[in-house]
Write a structure and sequence with these properties.
Number of strands of chain A: 18
Number of helices of chain B: 8
Structural class of chain B: mainly alpha
Strand content of chain A: 25-35%
CATH class of the largest domain in chain B: Mainly Alpha
Largest interface: A-B, 56 and 48 residues
Number of domains of chain A: 3
Oligomer: heterodimer
Shape of chain B: elongated
Structural class of chain A: alpha+beta
Order of helices and strands of chain B: HHHHHHHH
Number of strands of chain B: 0
């Protein structure tokens, strides 16, 4: 009776362990060679069960390679493992759909990009092999081609590019359907949903935009130019040196507001913090504020706003609500 | 009709030799079948009492599906996979005479015959990293640590061994355990991560 019950199959768990060991040998150890490969192939050829267990686990391992996206760009992991988890979670939350590619790529198709992401309130500096440097602001996702180091994508967020001069190899940044090409220069790019902003700090930048209608727009930007491209339009304005300084303040962990509406100021702070500012009414949203604030200090901001503008501050869960003071209680 | 070595009789594509065909089945398996693992495990859990059989049953279903695909790739992977599972369970029941066959009534609920896109496959890519982290979080701590050091910090086996203060062989064992757990979670879903402690 018992011999009908699959007498030949070793347990699936044994096969799986064996397959996992082969994957560790091939992908983790560094002494993999042709002999070992043919040994593995012989094992695989023994049974479809081997083949399947190997495929399944190798695919799972391949998926963990996405985790490399969370690898800090330089100086290794400065913090200990237990502390890393919250950071990791934030970085994960920060990654956009576009940042995850090659989800179903077979192990043989190596990903040709590396993803760098910052968490909410994060700030990082990437040094590229050509001497260029990219500084990432909060909640930003940047992909770098592994084939061509002078080709990157800004999927979301803001970055300050300091590009090493190389006339033979233009450096390109693509954001949605727009491309910025430079030979060597300094500029800031910010990709928000539906909107791209490019500010030139030094040198020249070419901004090309192809719209869904097939229409091409192109602009050559120089020092002080600030281009804003939306789905339908591209507008270039000049920025004063002071405005440019304000725009760079995030690199020092600051936000400088010069006569901005409370609505805009709150939106900027919200980019850096999990505790969100919510403005209750239009009247309050239109109030004007100026000053220098730490990107991560929502409390200081609300205190100042309360003292100067006399608005009411209250807390609702994770939100801080700013509303106009009630007259007469 | 010049010299083209194309008899046209079989309409055979000039390309796939045996190796290519093999690769095609692998590709199909990875793309179409693995993402259905959660549905398969759900079906097995509902229809089979003995949990310790799950890994073996899954393997056997996969082998049958894979072997069938080598002959001809099934058009609708999900119904095919679940039908295979059902047939396997029925055979077992007949042999072992334990449960009545009516237990399999809910097979149709699982979408046999319909050409629906499995929600498992529609997993939004954005969620991939979150899913990966959930999977990592559920691994035994040492296995997780080894995998994080490898895949996030990018350390070599030797460096991991030094960091964890254990032998390289032991690191390998942790990664082996972790990898099995990851695959269970990534393909079978949260409920399928029961072994490998």
């Amino acid at each position: 009776m018992s011999e009908i019950l699959e007498p030949v199959l070793p347990s699936a768990d044994d096969i799986e362990t064996c397959a996992a060991e082969w994957i560790v040998a091939a992908r983790v150890r560094d002494d993999w060679d042709d002999d070992k490969a043919s040994e593995r192939d012989a094992w695989l050829a023994q049974s479809p069960a081997h083949q399947i267990a190997y495929l399944r686990l190798d695919q799972a391992w391949g998926r963990t390679e996405r985790l490399a996206a969370l690898r800090p760009p330089k100086r290794g992991f400065a913090f200990a493992l237990p502390r890393m988890w919250p950071t990791l979670a934030k970085a994960v939350a920060a990654l956009s759909a576009a940042a995850v590619i090659g989800y179903f790529a077979l192990p043989s198709e190596r990903p040709h990009e590396r993803i760098y992401a910052t968490a909410l309130g994060g700030h990082d500096v990437l040094k590229l092999s050509d001497g260029s440097q990219v500084e990432l602001d909060t909640d930003t996702v940047l992909r770098i081609s592994l084939d061509d180091k002078r080709k990157v994508w800004l999927d979301k967020g803001q970055a300050y590019f300091q590009i090493a001069h190389d006339p033979a190899h233009p450096f390109t940044v693509t954001a949605a359907n727009r491309r910025v090409t430079v030979l060597g220069t300094k500029f800031i790019m910010r990709q928000d949903p539906q909107r791209l902003e490019v500010s030139v700090m030094e040198g020249r930048v070419r901004l090309e935009s192809s719209e869904s209608s097939g229409k091409q727009r192109s602009a050559l930007l120089t020092l002080g130019d600030d281009a804003v491209a939306t789905q339908t339009a591209m507008v270039v304005t000049r920025k004063t040196p002071r405005a440019r300084t304000e725009e760079m303040a995030w690199r020092r962990g600051l936000l400088i507001f010069d006569q901005r509406t409370l609505e805009l100021a709150a939106a900027e702070l919200n980019r850096y913090n999990t505790r969100k500012l919510v403005i209750a009414d239009k009247e309050t949203a239109a109030l004007i504020i100026g000053g220098t604030f730490r990107t991560n200090d929502v409390e200081a901001f609300t205190r100042v706003v309360h003292e100067i503008l006399g608005v009411k501050i209250s807390t609702q869960g994770n939100n801080i609500v700013i509303s106009k003071p009630r007259v007469g209680g | 009709m010049a010299e083209t070595p194309e008899p046209g009789a079989e309409g055979a594509d000039a390309s796939p030799p045996a190796k290519g065909a093999w690769a095609e089945v692998n590709l199909w398996f990875v793309r179409e079948v693995l993402p259905l693992e959660a549905a398969l495990m759900h079906f097995l859990r509902r229809n089979w009492r003995n949990k310790s059989d799950f890994a073996d049953l899954r393997q056997e279903v996969y082998v049958r599906v894979y072997e069938a695909a080598q002959k001809e790739i099934p058009r609708a992977p999900k119904p095919f996979l679940l039908r295979t599972a059902r047939n396997l369970l029925i055979n077992r029941v007949k042999r072992e005479q334990i449960v009545p066959i009516e237990t399999f009534a809910d097979l149709d609920v699982l979408g046999t015959g319909s050409s629906d896109v499995s929600p498992d496959r529609a997993v939004i890519a954005r969620e991939e990293l979150r899913v990966l982290q959930d999977a990592l979080d559920r691994l035994p701590p040492r296995a997780r640590e080894a995998i994080v050091l490898r895949q996030i910090e990018g350390l070599s086996l030797k460096e991991i061994a030094a960091r964890m203060n254990i032998a390289e062989k032991t690191v390998e064992r942790h990664i082996t355990i972790g990898l099995k757990g990851l695959a269970d979670y990534l393909y079978g879903g949260p409920d399928d991560m029961r072994r490998h402690k």
